[in-house]
Amino acid sequence: MRQTAILSVAIVLSASLATPQGVAQKKGELERRIIDKVAPVYPPLAKRMNVKGVVKLEVVVRANGTVKSMKVVGGNPVLIGAATDAVQNWKFELAPNETKGVVEVLFDEH
Predict the structure, then answer these.
(1) In this structure, is residue 3 part of a structural domain?
(2) How far apart are CA 109 and CA 14, in angstroms?
(3) 81 CB-near residues (< 8 Å, 6+ apart)
(4) Among 67, 64, 57, residue whose Cα is nearest residue 104
(5) CA-to-CA distance for 10 and 63, rounded, in angstroms?
(6) Which residue range is the domain that position 47 belongs to?
(7) How would you label 2-33 residue by residue, b for 16+ Cβ within 10 Å and e otherwise?
(8) Each residue's pLDDT tens digit, 15-50
(9) Count of alpha carbons within 13 Å of 79, Cβ hemisphere only?
(10) Cα distance between residue 98 and residue 76, in whole Å
């Protein structure tokens, strides 16, 4: 029986707005659509250990839609590498500026 990872992604991206004086204004929530989503490879160790769960990553997406950087916010260490490898290759819709927000990658073996 072949086991695959089912991927659910919740994306909340927020644009950081600043005044000319550099004082941060209220951050508005913005949804930025994924146009090319690479599914993570379910780690063999996670399969053997029956590890499931969510990996949360704070990502910075460039205006051109590529992932500039990411920081792990939470998740099982066995799953983090697969999640970061996949999200690094995601492509988002174009935007006028960089955006920052949290993505969640759900690993649920079936």
Answers:
(1) no
(2) 30
(3) 43
(4) 57
(5) 20
(6) 10-16+27-109
(7) eeebebeeebebbbeeeeeeeeeeeeeeeebe
(8) 332 322 222 222 333 468 889 999 999 999 999 999
(9) 26
(10) 28
CB 101 within 8 A of CB 14: yes
Whole-model pTM: value is 0.72
- Are residues 8 and 104 in contact, defined by beta-carbon separation less than 8 angstroms? yes
Residue 95 covered by a domain: yes
Give the number of domains in the chain. 1
- Tens-digit pLDDT profile for residues 45-83: 999 999 999 999 999 999 999 999 999 999 999 999 999
Neighbouring C-beta atoms of residue 70, cutoff 10 Å: 17
CATH value at residue 34: 3.30.2420.10
